[in-house]
What does this fold into?
Amino acid sequence: MSFFTLRGVGAMVVLQLISLSQAATWYLVDPVLVHDQGTWPSVWSGEVGYLHNAGGAVMYFDGAVSELVYPAALSNYEPAFANGVLAWRNCQDSAPSNEILRWNGQTVVNISNSPGIVDSDVAVGSNGDVMWSKSHQWLMYYNASTGATVDLGIRGVVPSMYVRPDGVVTYVYQCPDTFDVRYFDGTTTHTIGPGFGQGTSYNGRPKVWDGAVAWIGRGEGDSFSAGEVFFWRDGVTTRVTDDDAAGGKADDYPSLWNDVIVWQRAEISAFQTRIFLWDGTHITQITNSRSLFPSFQGGWVAWVDYAAGLMLARVIPDLDGDCNQDGLVDGDDFALIAVCFVGPDSGPLGDGCQCGDLDDDGDIDLADIAALQTLPQG
Ligand SMILES: [Ca+2]
Ligand SMILES: [Ca+2]
Ligand SMILES: [Ca+2]
Ligand SMILES: [Ca+2]
It folds into this structure.
């Protein structure tokens, strides 16, 4: 609960903002083009690791400009970026000698060092540690503070990591034998549920963030279209999408942050994919043209617009009274609205003041202030 006061408008109003979740649609704020040929983004706090094109050079976008991290020699895949550290799979020759390379902002180091052995499925933690899968079967772990790489002895593919504020590492992965999604919470391994996939294709793509797991499971439909989004927290599974009645629509590439999932969905047809968001209550379609490979973290989404290239934007809930578009209704918005205060029926409103006219009657007066008072904080 927070309190603040409005002065200088002939009255002092005490606002009490109550923390409630407000059902809302979501929207993208100020999308920017990162690179017209960029693909496979991995976003962290408005910065992006990505490829120049499929298999191409590894790039890093710092929020303003892009720099080359590693050339297309021979080819690169699966960039994963977190907190200034970028890791990816590098194919060094025609033999299956994939290696995992790691960039700390300055130098590139081979952290798998296993010629002739396939290493793939890269994940990076906020502490700079890296996980991946060896031979599409075994989970590997690189510890950034010791520089050591160990085989965890766990059968797993497509891992994802979340490092708790106390430093405890948690992760999820898909079992290559049963296709189950498994979550290690730092102490215990939980079998969450079946992930999508068949044969040697592991398409569960589980993601973990702060005790929650999102992944692709199976609905009805063929092996291309049966993907469905699932969410798990505290032992409770939520099926987010259900296209059984339509015979399946492909849902894929989930990202999870703060119990919000962003993913790619074949909404119109197999090729006409869009980016969607689920906030625990509602599903919002957040792009309107062909879009692929979303990555979501820290309130930012990076994705590939098929026509334009690699895009980056903030994504926020559409809340009444959120005048500064930061996804919260709080004192900062109140300060903006206070500047716009004109009193009853004494418009017109100044530039940028429209958002404060909460009762939509052309002015900003105490009725609007009262309306703001009833809004939950986003
Ligand atoms: Ca290798
Ligand atoms: Ca589906
Ligand atoms: Ca705000
Ligand atoms: Ca008004």
User: Anything to note?
Assistant: Confidence is low (pLDDT under 50) at residues 1-21. The pocket of calcium ion (ligand 3) is lined by residues 322, 324, 326, 328-330, 332-333 (CB under 6 Å).
